[in-house]
Structures are given as structure tokens and as C-alpha cells.
Design a protein that fits this description.
By secondary structure, the chain is an all-beta fold. The protein has a domain of about 110 residues: Elongation Factor Tu (Ef-tu), domain 3 (Beta Barrel), CATH 2.40.30. Strands 1, 2, 3, 4, 5, 6, 7 and 8 form an eight-stranded antiparallel sheet that branches. Strand 6 and strand 7 form a beta hairpin. The N and C termini lie far apart (about 45 Å). About 15% of the residues are buried.
Length: about 180
């Protein structure tokens, strides 16, 4: 089976986009979709008749290896580089849009953004494998140790999630038959 390449989405073949930017130094991304249900009970029965969905939640997190503009400028092959702090993130076409999501003075002006996970192939990017719509930051933190690099963690909530195997977006009619 020589010459056959695996088609798994791996960290080596994944490309992560938040809004309008590719998170080049994203270390990991995780997400959860939670459907809350309530038990429906009737008189005369001890068991639950059914569990019905009442809420849909999407949350997740991502980690980014940080570098500063000063460190980037030490790379003589790319002297025009900037740092990759959240204040440089152009999530919706506006420079610094990312920092509004964690800056108390700008929270009310922050906008939602979409997170997409692509798979890179020799022929180019495969259409998004996973899409999370209308994300908002809920937490920012960081960690560094003596032998490591500064890694910033961001938590977020989203409104909807879909992937390449189903359409989880709001568009389209729902057929309940």
C-alpha cells in the first residue's frame, strides 16, 4: 500500500482560522456540543416516557504559543513581523478586534467570530471540517515554565456547530417528519 497517504485530520495537517486570521501557532483546539434534555413523566408510570431536548450549548477552548513583536523582529528573514497577541487578531476585518472580547472597557463593542478547522492537503485546503458559529471569549489565561514557552489559553462559547458530515447551521428548513 505504498504511496497511499492517510486522510486523518491531525495536528500536522490541521489549519485553524478564527474570524479572518489563521492561528499559525495554535497548539490545540477543543470544543463540546451539549444538548440538555428533561425527562417527561406521566401519571401511572414509574419510568420516564421520553427525554426531550430543551437547550443546545457549544463551548470550547484554544491555546496559542505567544511571541512578541520584538522576538519576531529578531528573525532577520522576516523583519516586518508583528507579535501574535490577541490585540493583533483581526477577527472581523478590524485590527485589534480580538482584544475587545477580553478588555473590560470594550466588551460591549465586541463582536462574534467564527472558528473553522481545515485540513491541509497537497492539493490545498479541504473545505472546513468543523465550523463553530458566533463565538465569544469567556476566559483568557496563560502559563509559562522555566523550560517552556508562554502559552495563552482562551475559552469561548459559540451558538452553533457543524462539520463536514452534517449542516448544523440555521439555514434551511427543518423536516420533522
Amino acid at each position: 500500500m505504498a504511496g497511499i497517504k492517510p486522510a486523518f485530520v491531525t495536528g500536522a495537517t490541521a489549519k485553524i482560522k478564527a474570524g479572518n486570521i489563521t492561528l499559525a501557532y495554535a497548539q490545540d483546539v477543543s470544543y463540546n456540543v451539549t444538548i440538555t434534555t428533561i425527562p417527561i413523566e406521566t401519571m401511572g408510570r414509574y419510568e420516564v416516557v421520553t427525554n426531550e431536548p430543551v437547550a443546545y450549548f457549544v463551548d470550547g477552548s484554544l491555546s496559542v504559543i505567544r511571541y512578541t513583536e520584538a522576538a519576531r523582529n529578531m528573525d532577520k528573514t522576516n523583519p516586518t513581523g508583528e507579535g501574535n497577541g490577541i490585540g493583533k487578531w483581526n477577527l472581523n476585518g478590524n485590527a485589534g478586534e480580538g482584544s475587545k472580547g477580553v478588555n473590560p472597557g470594550a466588551l460591549i463593542a465586541s463582536e462574534t467570530w467564527d472558528l473553522e478547522i481545515f485540513q491541509k492537503t497537497d492539493e490545498g485546503d479541504v473545505p472546513a471540517v468543523v465550523r463553530l458559529f458566533d463565538c465569544r471569549f469567556t476566559r483568557k489565561g496563560g502559563a509559562i515554565n522555566k523550560r517552556g514557552v508562554l502559552v495563552e489559553q482562551y475559552a469561548f462559547n459559540a451558538i452553533l456547530a457543524d462539520d463536514d458530515s452534517f449542516d448544523g447551521s440555521r439555514s434551511g428548513d427543518i423536516d420533522l417528519s
